[in-house]
Amino acid sequence: MQLMSGNEAIARGAWEAGCSIGVAYPGTPSTETMESFATYDGVYAEWCTNEKVAVEVGIGASAAGARVLSTMKHVGVNVAADPLFTAAYTGVNGGYVILAADDPGMYSSQNEQDSHYYACASHTPMLDPADAQEALDFTRDAYELSERFDVPFLIRSTVRVSHTKTPVEVGERIDYQLKPYEKNAPKWVMMPAYAKPRRKVQLKRIDDLKAWVETCPYNRAVQKGAEIGVICCGAVYQHVLDALPDASVFKLGVTWPLPEQALKSFAASVKRVFVVEEGSEYLSEQVRSLGIDLSPFSDTLPKDGELSPGLIKKAFGIAEPAHHDVPDDVPGRPPALCAGCPHRLVFKELSRIKAIVTGDIGCYTLGALPPLASIDTCVDMGASVSMSHGFELALAGTEHKPVVAVIGDSTFGHSGLSSLITTVYNKGAGTVCILDNRTTAMTGRQGNPFNGMTLQNRESRELDLVGLVKALGVEHVEQVNPHDMKAVRSALKTATTEQAGELSVIVFKAPCVLLHRQRKPHFFVNADCRSCGVCATLGCPAISKDAETGIAAIDPLMCIGCGQCAQYCAFDAIEQINDSAMEGGAR
Ligand SMILES: Cc1ncc(C[n+]2csc(CCOP(=O)(O)OP(=O)(O)O)c2C)c(N)n1
Q1: Which domain holds residue 546?
Q2: Which of 145, 314, 366, 433 is most buried, judging by how many CB atoms fall within 10 Å of its CB?
Q3: What is the pLDDT of residues 442-462, one digit of tens each?
C-alpha cells in the first residue's frame, strides 16, 4: 500500500500496463503525472512543445506498436483536439491513454472547461476516477481496453483527484512486447477515400462501447434509500457520500458513453433522481437525453466552481452548520512576481511608456496586477503575438500607443512562434518581448526547447532564440539583460519609436530566480529615503512602506539582492549590504 496522488497513480497505472512512452506538455493540474512517469525504469518520457505535438507523437508511437501515455490540462485538450478527433477514426496499435485534467474553480487556469464534452464530441471513451486507487486501476485497464476497442482512451481527472493523496494498492509491471507495425493505409491514412469507411468502423465501435458499458464494473449503483437517487462521477462522488449518506448513488466510472439501461433501472428504483456535477451540465444533458426525468434541487447547485459537501447539502435543502467567516483583519495576499524576478522591470518600463500590452500565459501574466498593471489582454497560449498583430492591423493609420506583446520562452515555443511567422509573412508591425527566464516557471520549472533541459536529463539541444527569430526575417532583434533598467528602457524606446511601424523583437534573457536560488547580499533602505514611493511601484514583495511616514523598508529575508529597486531610487537611499556583514551572519 502506498500513499499517492491521483497524478502519481495514473503514472503508476500506465507503468504497470507496460506503457513505455510518455509525451506531454505541462499544465496544472496534470503536470506531476508525466514527471512521475519519467522516474520509472524502462520508460522514455519527454516534454513536447505543445499538446497537439504530444498527441501526434503519441499516435505515431502507438501506431508503431508501443503503449503510450499523454497528459495535459483541460485547455491543452483544445490544442490537441485536431489529432484527437481523427485518432478516434484511425484507432491505435499499441494502447494509447490520454489524461485530460480539469480545473473546476480555475485555481490555475484561464477558464473552466469540462473535458467530458471532448469525449462525447470525438467519440473517445472516457474514464473518470474518483480517487488515486481508481486512477491507477482505470489507467492500467485502459490500455487493454484501448487495444480491444481500437481507440485511444481518455482519463479525466479534476484538481481534487489529481492532487489528493489516498492509499493505493500497487501491482507489478507486465512484460508488454512492442506490437508489430504493418503498413495499413485504410487505417492510418485519413483522406476521404479511407476516412469514410473508417467512420463506419467508428460507428460500429460506438455500438460496441455502448454494449460494453452496460456491465462495466467501473459504474456502480449503491442502493440505499428508495427516496433519492444521485448520479455523479469523479471527486463529486466523494462529496455526495459526505453530504447525502442516505441517498442511493449511481457512480459513473465511464462517463462516455453512458450506460443507458443501467441508468434507467437505477432511476426506476428511486422516487427522485438528481445529477450532481461541477462546472457544467454535461451529465445532466446526457442523462436527460436518455429519457430520464431529473428532479429540481430545492436550492440552486452552483454552475461554476468546485462543489463541496456543504454546497451539495444546501442544494438539497439540508441546513449546514454556519461556516466561520474569514476575519476582517486577515490581510489579503494577492499573488506577485517573486523578489528578483527578471520579468519585473520589463513591466515597470512598459507601464512608464503607457504601451498597449498584449499578454500571454505564464508567471508574467502577473504583470497585469497592480502596481505594475501593465498587461491589457490575456486569452490563451501564444495569443500575445497574434493579438498584437490584430491590434496593429486595426490601429494602422491612426495615432496610437505602442503595441507590445509579452510572451515567455516556453509559451513562445508552444504557439508564439507560429503567430510570429504570421506577422512576419504579412509584414506586420509592433514589438514582441520574449521573456526568456530559461525555464517554464509557472508550472514548476520544466525544460523547454530554449533551455536545453529535458524531462529525463537526456542530452539535448538548446535552440538559439535570437538566431531563430533572425532566421524568420525579423530585422530588429536584440537581446537585453532584464535586470538592467537603462538597457530595458533604451531597448523599448528604440523599438517603439525609431522602429515604430516595423516589427521588432527583444529577447529579455535572465534566469528565473527559482532556478539556481543564488542569493546575493541583500539591499536595505538608508536614512536618505524621502518617502517618494517609487520603489514600491515595482511590486516587489520584499519592499514595504511605513503606513504613516511612507518610509520604505526592505525585508532582508525576502530580498535576494537583484538590485532592481536601487536603480529606481533617485536619492541613493537603497544600498546593498556589504558581503562581510552577510558572512558574519548580519541577516
Ligand atoms: C494550452 C495550455 N497548455 C498549458 C498551460 C499551462 N501553462 C500555463 S503557463 C505555462 C508556461 C509558462 O512558461 P513560460 O512561457 O516560459 O513563462 P514563465 O512562467 O516561465 O514566466 C504553461 C505550460 C496552459 N495554460 N494552456
Answers
A1: 523-583
A2: 433
A3: 999 999 999 999 999 999 999
